[in-house]
Amino acid sequence: MAFCALSEAKGMVIKMKHFNKTKYLKEAELTIETFKDIEEVVADISNRNIENIFLIASGGSLAIMNPIYFVAKQKTKLPIYLEVAAEIVATGHAQLSENSLVITASKSGMTKETVAMAAWCKEKNIPIVALVGKEGTLLHKLATYTVLGKAKDAPEFEYMQLFVLLFGLLEKRGEFDGYLEFKNQLKTIPGDLARFRDEFSPKADEIAKAFHNVPYQLWIGSGSIWGEIYSLTMCVWEEMQWLKTKAVTSAEFFHGTLEIVEKDTPVVLVKTDDKTRSLDERVEKFLPQICDNFFVIDLRDYQFSTVKTEYREYLMAPICSALLGDCLSSYYEFYSGHSLNIRRYYGVMDY
Amino acid sequence: MAFCALSEAKGMVIKMKHFNKTKYLKEAELTIETFKDIEEVVADISNRNIENIFLIASGGSLAIMNPIYFVAKQKTKLPIYLEVAAEIVATGHAQLSENSLVITASKSGMTKETVAMAAWCKEKNIPIVALVGKEGTLLHKLATYTVLGKAKDAPEFEYMQLFVLLFGLLEKRGEFDGYLEFKNQLKTIPGDLARFRDEFSPKADEIAKAFHNVPYQLWIGSGSIWGEIYSLTMCVWEEMQWLKTKAVTSAEFFHGTLEIVEKDTPVVLVKTDDKTRSLDERVEKFLPQICDNFFVIDLRDYQFSTVKTEYREYLMAPICSALLGDCLSSYYEFYSGHSLNIRRYYGVMDY
Known about the structure:
homodimer; alpha/beta; Rossmann fold; 2 domains; 5-stranded parallel sheet; 4-stranded parallel sheet; 11 strands; 48% helix
């Protein structure tokens, strides 16, 4: 059974990370318990005169803001921006004021640039909602409102919290009708996400076997999963596996990156199942004509048991997070024999 | 003299592309002549009830919108968005309406996704200003207002046009006081940009000699030059030299990508001379501790002769375009013996 196998690459012995479904569903329950706290935050914010929303974070936490940004801009008349914490502190923004709402996140609650941004906002009386993984941390102390994370390593639970926050805010503005229904269906997705891991495992095994040690790999995706492609390549393959990558959107692939693809170039296309699917299909049609070393992961293969069709498009990033950030990374770790927990510089050097 | 040398790599004979200063300054003159057309466009737009601005394009033309977006969001209360043409057509945007202003660009005037976006906007009565390199092309026909490009291969002239457009609009809104002064100083930069090429040549020679054929190179930059880093790696190194690259912002470098850098990893940091310079300095301080195969290009080394200090920060992207997209790419071409004009797929296959 693959999940119990041992990798001995590089002279190390790595036991394949076992997906603990019981723990996962327990953490899902704890996450769902935070929905009522988020609704209190939404109620309070709705009494403020909010003129715009700024999603501001760093690295992996910036990436999880991406799908929220993607959905929000299709739905709300409220101006909404996605910004990098360090850049916003350096430059400011003409529309960021005490009438803004800043939404941020940091798993550790200690991300240097995000904490600096929160301090900078606080000084300007700009309200901040922060998703924080640890109580009592700097970000927790600086935030106007804190939503505590209950799951150690599952961005899909942060997505669930962000959706309740965003759609809650939109509902108050009359910009999202199905809030209660969607929230209830959201509670059912963890079981499905656990099942998707199992269904994806054989493919994860195949991809990891082929690409865990290639000198370069290209990942392509679009729309609401772009943040996931960005963070998988940067925060997982580069940071945790020391693998060189390039991530490009399906639309932009055709404006330069295609030219480096040859027969044997390692490529993965992740097809979303939302409004930008046609952009991925264009890549899918083109790739086989120039390359025979690619994989296609189609998120349409992963169907929720209770989520209504009209809400499904919002949930592409949680599927991606379960399949790629969790399941696939375990297979890379297994084949490479390179622990996902080892860093060369982060936590080792000061910078 | 390097500019007359011949490269015989790969059995081809490549004569180094000579920078034709006379032609360049002539094209600059023609570009400056378009300023009055742009001012007519600005006057007309200012009579409309514009609620927000959308900068929408594809590939290299999307990249040139980036510095405009960067400056605009620091200055205007008008909501402003930067979007990919193909994505906006696929998803729409809740705030994009006939009260929006779309600013777009395409050198060829025929970029498939940009033309489709313009047709989509036109159908919705959304006004479009288009920078177009060729008269009578599809984009020219679809646009509400067209600004014609007069220079074959110099994005810095498109930047000049975009600055006149943007700052002209902001001036009418009372959000940019120095418009006339800035416009007049803008007219003097082409001579400086030509001089910067000469000053940069020895360094370009050195970088190209070292990195024209490496299997992977990492480019880092921030703020108003991020678009230039993005397009240099994708639209020049990948598209025109078939070199594998990764581009990352100075801020995000510390959230994953740093871990793949070893002693011999080819890295170039481009230091801007605007508000995000401190983010680049953080990278500059860190890099030598882990790598000895990197170059730093400091835009502070390139000083305009007449531009006032307070306007200098807007002009980082034009400097970058002259140094990297033009001068450095010629040196890469020379050493690689790989013509910048050859494509594997673009113009060869249908996609």
